Amino acid sequence: MSVIYIVLPLALVLGGAALAAFLWAVRRGQFDDLDTPAIRMVLEDDVENDR
Amino acid sequence: MTPPPRTEERVDCSHCGLPVPAGRVEIGAEEQFCCGGCRIVFQTLRSSGLGEDYYALRARFDDASGAEPARATGRSYEAYDRETFQDEHVRRIPGPDGAPGLAQVDLLLEGVRCAACVWLVERLPKLIPGVVEVRLRMRDARVTIVYSPEHVALSRIARELDALGYPAHPPGAEEQRELARRAERGHLIRMGVAAVCAGNAMLVAFALYSGREGGIDPSHAALFRWTGLALGWLSILWPGRTFLRGAWAALRTGTGHLDLPIAIALVAGALAGTWNTVTGRGEAYFDSLTVLVFLLLVGRYVQARQQRWAADAVDLTRALTPASCRVVREAGTPRESTEEVTLDELAVGDVVEVRPGEPFPADGVLESGRSRVDRALLSGESEPVAVEPGDDVHAGTQNVASVVRMSVAEVGASSRVGRLMGLVEEGLAHKPPIQRLTDRIAGVFVVVVCGLGVANFLLWSVRADLATAIDHTVALLIVACPCALGLATPLTLAVAVGRAARSGLLVKDAAVFERLVRRGRLLLDKTGTLTHGEPRLVQWTGDPAARADVAAVEAHSNHPIARALVRDLEEYARPGVRAAELEERLDGGVAGTVEERRVRVGSLEHLAAHGHALAPGLRPEAEAMESRGESVVGVAYDGRSDGVVALASLADSPRPDAAAVVDSLVARGWSPEVLSGDVDGAVDRVAGAVGIEHAWGRVEPEGKLERVRALQAKGEVVWMVGDGVNDAAALAAADVGVAVHGGAEASLAAADVYASRPGLAPLEELADLSGRTMRTIQRNLALSFTYNAAGITLAMLGLMDPLVAAILMPISSASVLVLAMLSLGRRSRSRASTSGDAPETSSGPGQRTFERALPGI
Q1: Which residue of A5, A30, A32, A48 is the best one to mutate when testing the B interface, meaning the one whose CB has the most B CBs within 10 A?
Q2: Rounded CA gap, B426 and B844, in Å?
């Protein structure tokens, strides 16, 4: 069962990595505007189809 | 004379889709425009090849209910290229190795309404070479432009945006915005950290709980306990610090605060858990504690997000005065020249040229030119006032009739409107504080829980030993933490804010719901609030055929009476018939030639001065109209001897739903009062028509504020409803300020609630929603206290297990949340929109849920 000594730190490292990614995204301003990107995505698609 | 022909079909503007006034219809033309702005935008789009896509997109994303004419102003934006402007607003991005770099600038745009606007604005790099990237944020209509200053001037970009119908403004109050942004990011970061801690702490706790049943190697158990300990402390000391700090502040000031019981649970649980981990016996509560921190932070984040609107208010004075103006240098000399300067560069003593349709940039004295000035900003009345050289003019008031020059006496914050906005900011800062319901309860709660804790401790130290007593008391403190309260109340309020938005009420601060539950004084502005805010045709007497001619002649005037006549007589106009040889007189009349006939429309004095007498048959009518306080306009034909052939009377009548709404609010316990800048007679008449006894006329903006303060000093809750800049200071100071539809930006910034639907029905809905919200909150409180009581009982009996605590806590939160959503969600649907303003109302249940009316410019 001593595999737990590897698995538990691994779980923590994974959690930490996810947290680091989240903090990076917040600091880059990824969550500053939650409305427009959703619309923008639809628009870009539309324009490609039209042309 | 030909019988009055009627337009067979309505002609819609090719750009905005609103009906085109008959006088502007061009026969045979494929495109028709309701105004110059729409024409500019349409042509810009057409010539750039973007028109087709834009209109197709707009048809998909936007419905006609929010249609408004394009706002293209045709300004030159020269000031944007000046060093002072560039230093303040433009950031340089240096290129690699000394190559010419790029520049980045943020601007606020007017007229951003839907997804098609995002698309169009972000196509700017295709229209102007040298623009690298454009990103528009819909939430606050803020556009970030990256461009190459080597290739394109900022003024060119601003002109292009203007031509597309989005006049640009430099953003103000930058520091405040930055603070708000940082606070929001801080919230997100804390939530993220708390989530990771909670997830992993639960992971190890599961292992421990299952180990307790199935047996666990002691060394593994120790590993799990120490991991849990580390995660728990990380969670409490980093994201959880915000509760500890709040509790400390509450302790020092001796006030009740929700953070207090939370902090007690966190500290007691963490200390006991640490002791138990170190000694290797007893329970560690870190799984419950980390989840607690996470859930409570979710509640805080929701609360902070629904209040973000307040932080978006811009520098108010800047919003009311133009960003730039034209200064005349060396006026009166042959070397005279005009120069566009920003408002910051404007100095006392400068001579400024103001064109019709532009606002005055500063307070001062009129130097030359005669014109009319729309003083609605200060008086609330849209009827322009005539001015001549020597008269005072005020910053922010609008020049209506002709080009004038003024010499500047007061600039910016020291101008009258600047001082008024100072009062608004002061009012917002000194709003009577309300102790939030949750905080009041938390104060009592702490005392009760601490008392129970002490009793429990004594009880168990007598019945058993000290260690058991500590264990059971810690369990009690943790399980008594008002988690459901801390999570459910902000979420209930957030749901209520959402419901309000759906029925056309934008609520800035959810405290409004708590304030409105108490009854008090309801102060209403007259013009634009109780009434439509603009004159409407009440009666037409005399030759019906003249109506078409009046519509044609008045189509070119922007006097409010002319606009009212055009709007209300439009259906009689003959398409393609336009007036020629127009002549607009400052003494209250216009004349024009329609189909060879010389038509003169104006006040009876004006017509008499031109030799048109009032026929005896019409005299009683005219007197009756005047006695009712209506404005009387006559029509006559020059070169004919029949005198005045028709009379039209106009008045600013109360909104159709005003009386009913006032009645129902009185029934709810509010005592209404009217505060208006208009003359006493008009105010009394409107107040009488809607059934309000107390009415005050000729109240200046400062007077409205005083009235609010006086009532508050007597301890009354003041609910102020208004629409104008002159109401802004009072709106800001009142316990609850509501700006009605069509209100000035400043009133929107000052108010707590903005109605995006015309009419007064939103007031009634707001009162309803407040009652419902507070009832839901009380029900939630009752439920969460039931859970707490059950938990505390179990803990005092010594039956509380960390596992039970870990399960009970999320269940209680979840059930309270579900209840909140259900109880607020069910009833609101039956109360869709019931606006009484029939002519204006195109907003049925299918209206846009959130009107993008407040970029705050």
Answers
A1: A32
A2: 38
Encode pLDDT of B517-568 as tens digits: 888 899 998 888 888 877 888 888 888 888 888 888 887 776 778 878 887 8
How close does chain A come to B753, measured CA to CA in Å? 22
Calculate how close chain B gets to A50, using CA atoms only, in Å: 8
Q: Do A32 and B204 touch (CB under 8 A)?
A: no
What is the rounded CA–CA span in Å between residue B16 and residue B38? 7
pLDDT tens digits for range B614-655: 878 888 888 888 877 778 888 888 888 778 888 888 888 888
Q: Is B697 exposed, middle or buried (0-12, 13-18, 19+ CB in 10 A)?
A: middle
Which tokens go with B477?
A: 């403190």
Residue B329, beta-bridge partner list: B337
Tokens 């409407």 belong to B536
Q: Measured between alpha carbons, how far is A16 from B287 in angstroms, rounded to an integer? A: 17
**Confidence at residue B760, expressed as pLDDT on a 0 to 100 scale:** 87
Identify the CA nearest to B185 among candidates B90, B275, B305, B295: B305
Count the neighbouring beta carbons within 10 Å of the beta carbon of residue B94: 10
pLDDT at B583: 77
Q: What is the signed CA dihedral for B534, B538, B541, B544, rounded to 10 degrees?
A: 70
Task: Provide the CB-side half-sphere exposure for B413 (13 A, CA).
Answer: 5
Which pLDDT does position B673 carry in this prediction? 92
Flag whether residue B185 sits within 8 Å of chain A, measured between CB atoms. yes
CA dihedral B457, B461, B464, B470 (to 10 degrees): 50
The one catalytic residue in B525, B678, B735, B752 is: B525
Higher pLDDT, B382 or B206: B206
Q: Is B525 a catalytic residue?
A: yes
Computed over every residue of chain B, the mean pLDDT equals 80
Question: What confidence tens digit (pLDDT) does each residue in B17-31 have?
Answer: 777 766 667 777 777
The answer to whether A28 contacts chain B (CB < 8 Å) is no
Residue B445's contacts (CB-CB under 8 Å, 6 or more residues apart) are B256, B261, B482
Residue B208 token pair: 């421990």
B222-242 pLDDT, tens per residue? 899 999 999 999 999 999 999
pLDDT 10s digits, B236-295? 999 999 999 989 988 888 777 888 888 988 998 899 899 988 888 777 889 889 988 998
> Residue B599 pairs with which residues in a beta bridge?
B592, B637
Contact B53 A33 (CB under 8 A): no
Q: Which of B831, B726, B676 is nearest to B769 (CA)?
A: B831
CB contact under 8 A, A23 and B189: yes
Q: Do A1 and B217 touch (CB under 8 A)?
A: yes
Q: For the packed helices B483-502 and B286-306, what is the interaxial angle rounded to 10 degrees?
A: 20
The one-letter code for the residue type at B264 is: I
Size of interface A-B (CB pairs under 8 A): 65
Total length of chain B: 857
**CA B555 – CA B21 distance, rounded (Å):** 7
From B138's Cα to the closest Cα of chain A, the distance in A is 6
